[in-house]
# Entry
Amino acid sequence: MKENNEKNQELSREKTQVSDIDRNIYDIKDEEKDVYRIEEGLTKQIVEKLSKEKNDPDWMREFRLKSLDIYNELEVPEWGPSIEGLNMDEIVTYVRPNTKMSAKWSEVPDDIKNTFDRLGIPEAERQSLAGVGAQYDSELVYHNVKKEVEEQGVIYTDMESALTGPYADMVKEHFMKLVPPTDHKFAALHGAVWSGGSFVYVPPGVSVEIPLQSYFRLNAPGAGQFEHTLIIVDEGADLHFIEGCSAPKYNVANLHAGCVELFVGKNAKLRYSTIENWSKNMYNLNTKRAKVEEGGRIEWVSGSFGSHVSYLYPMSVLSGKGARAEFTGVTFAGNDQNLDTGTKVIHNAEDTSSYVNTRSISKDGGTSTFRSAVVITEKAKNSKSAVSCESLMVDNISRSDTIPAMDIRTRYADVGHEAKIGKISDDAVFYLMSRGLSEDEAKALIVSGFADNVSKELPVEYAVEMNNLIRLEMKGSIG
Amino acid sequence: MADCLLKVEDLSVSVEDKEILKGINLEVKSGETHVIMGPNGAGKSTLGLAIMGNPKYAVTKGKISLEGEDITEEPANERAKKGLFLSFQAPIEVPGITLSEFLRNALQQRSEKRVKFWDFKKEVEENMNLLNMDEKYLQRDLNVGFSGGEKKKAEVLQLLTLKPKLAILDETDSGLDVDAVKTVSKGISEYMKKHGGSLIIITHNTSILESLSVDKTHVLVKGKIEADGDGTLVKEILESGFSRFDEN
# Structure
């Protein structure tokens, strides 16, 4: 099924003049102060040097080299938006800020602190969010887990420490098992050069009351970011993890190929919320995957903003009886953006269920594509899946596509798909304007309202941030 | 001129190149209640939408002024800020925005200052009480899934909250049962009494007019005002219909 506005939409008002959005609030960059930077381009020597520099255990060094071989063998995917602008030879893979891990805010260098201040991290801290693991370039610079969480036996640390710490075996057992380097070229790249990220382990039966939060940023021209997030929620445990991303703007093509692996135990629950706001030159080729055991539940809440090109399809593998996946997403594609997002669910056990609810917004000639895949294997009898996607085009020059795929291998499944596509209603804009709202405000309100499937699921400060982002993106659309 | 609130002069309006209104003249003084009647398709709603500034309704000739100021080219939100209000015949459903958020937002846009939440809440709740509206509607998305009657009540609630100088009510009474018409009329009388409002009422019905004193009646036929009169004209039309105004 493919739809676009040229076919489906009548040209109503020709008032669609477009101007660039002022992203100054988010496009903050500090002077580069890198102590150390690896030569551009990717070779075996670079990967070995990186591994040595990071004091990898032997198995990790080998893993990286094997991944590099796979990377060199695999082709760049050609089924999605063009990533021709990306030249891997120009990507400096590893940049480290000139600071060591810091547990105290006062020890964080001023320029880094300024950036975080403007992103509101200490404020979030004050608002009693559980732990902040803030990644500045490729290294964790600020890391603080609230005492109460530690007391519950919850481990929240950076991936490097986790590799050699008391949970080293657990990391080795799970690392890139859900997303193997053979999965695709950028997963292989990730396996070779990954750096930074978070490790979380929640012991059986522990319910973490406050959400854990991490903040990733990219800084430094040409630097890729390959952070790895590994979360294990043990039997009957419950966690909400929030990942917030925003990056300053640069002229050189930037690449983000992170990897998120989530293991949800028997009767455990994990909610993984993300607000991504990449600068408009970013290639965001992120891979996220969750495996859910019997009676467990994964809830993805995902807001995708910014980037030049995104490929993002968080995947849920329902491998135990009665496992459940929910995916709630919003994607906003503006001028010169091609955002290809969606989700994938594999039902591989009886009585599993999935519920997908997404909204895509496109504006100023942006392209937003919803791509989903629901697979129900022979084993997954009595499984249910409901997919609903809605697209909103703010003007007549933007594009929205819907590509849902379904592969059902049992007769005993209940599967539904619903797609809606539309343009912002002139009548609704006029109605709101007749009550005193300007055209911009009316449209921003309608678009925010359209995205309320996600904002309703986010903690209030994130919902406010997302609505502010929408407001920013909607600005400048005066006819 | 000082007490002339709205002045419509020789107004012609087209929709998609089709001329709907042909040289309309209308003057509403502050505090007056005008009634516009006419057969279906005469252009009554078009007149309301054009006065409010819907960009689909192109003014091809003539002028609209509010308190002596030419607003013909002004966008709808500026007209709203200057004191115009239109109660929609078919209020639009806007998902994702609660009635409460919307009212407060609109109020702030008009007054261009922050509205204190508790003052706002108190006033809105009083108004809802007057309109027999369940306060639960405040937390519901604007008009989404409201019954026809609740939608119209929500329009009157907006009228009472926003307190415009002039309200155009486009068939606010249509589709309502007897009790709901009474409730809505009560809200409209309240607006007239308490806020010294002025009205243009587009209607086919007299029951909404019972509690109001009508100053002027205009009969709109085929895009032209064919007759003007006082309140008694309404009764006359109800008895004999529009045919006598439609001879040419």
In short: The first helix of chain B runs from residue 44 to 52. Residues 37 and 219 of chain B are 5 Å apart (CA to CA). The first strand of chain B starts at residue 4 and ends at 15.
